[in-house]
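Q: Convert this sequence to structure tokens.
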Amino acid sequence: MDTIKKYLDNIFAGLPNTDAVLKTKRELLAAMEEKYLALKNEGQTDNEALGTVILQFSNVDEIVRQLGAQQSGTDPNPPHIASPNQPQITSPNQPQFTGPNLPLLKEEEVREYISVNRNAGLLIGLGVFLIISGVALMVFLAGMGDSGIFSNGQINDAGGVIGVIVMFLFIAIGVGLFIFSGIQVERFKYLEKGFVLPDNLREEISRKYDKQTPSFTAAIIIGVGLCILSPVPVLLTAVISGFEGYAAAALLLLLVAIAVFIFIKAGMARESYQRLLQIEDYSPEKIAADKVTGAVAGVVFPLAALFYLYLGFFRGLWHPGWLIFPVVGILFGIFSTVYETIKKSGK
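A:
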């Protein structure tokens, strides 16, 4: 409690002790303390509860700026803070707000968010599957071209050209699915700034989250199993005569594509519960780490694809140039794991 009071004292230090300022400060303190006690009753530690409260009340600075403008006479409208037990009145189509402008989620809103997130997981997973499958087809067709299957005396690299066309077609479809799902999820972007979940909804979501755990675990086991088995086709080329390396590489990528689809579909359905409950992957440390790894992935993987195209078109190394993809994937996985571990340990 003292930590919350000191936090507000520091935030309000630059304002005069007028009745309006003191009233706003008291209301904020009451709302934050109520939320803190609720989190403690749910079993959170002192540090976890304080971190969650400060994160959810992160727009206190905006309230202080409004108060400062009011004191200087530039803003005639004082900031309004509803009492902790009384939400502000809003239109039926808008989320209700409580505390310092935090949305109080309604049951229909929560159900819609879970449904939209589940559908988005399906579409995004399918998009990633198509992109990886496009690369697999490109490797397969390029390998067939190198074997002379597409040779007609005029085009020496027809397989590689057809493979690249198919890959970009699959990428275009995948990106379209990303955009469509992103538009659907965008409606709930305001949740990233914090929200208040009623206790009855929190209990219901927590039960569903626990109930979903076995199916999520099964999906992860299947996905990991496919990833472990994915190199098997490549190993079989050493013992099965006539089993071409390019076919083995394509099968490897196809198995990885199926595994990634399973991971994304199951993961996004689970993430909707985690975001609403504000646990695990939606802790402040995890969110910060994801921003960094996402930015790195947005640079590394396109560069890997460009380098592979360079090797294929200018060096004729469609095979073994495809090895760049599993190598980059493994290195990126190591980087992500190490970075997230460092962030969690606070080093």
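The radius of gyration is 27 Å.
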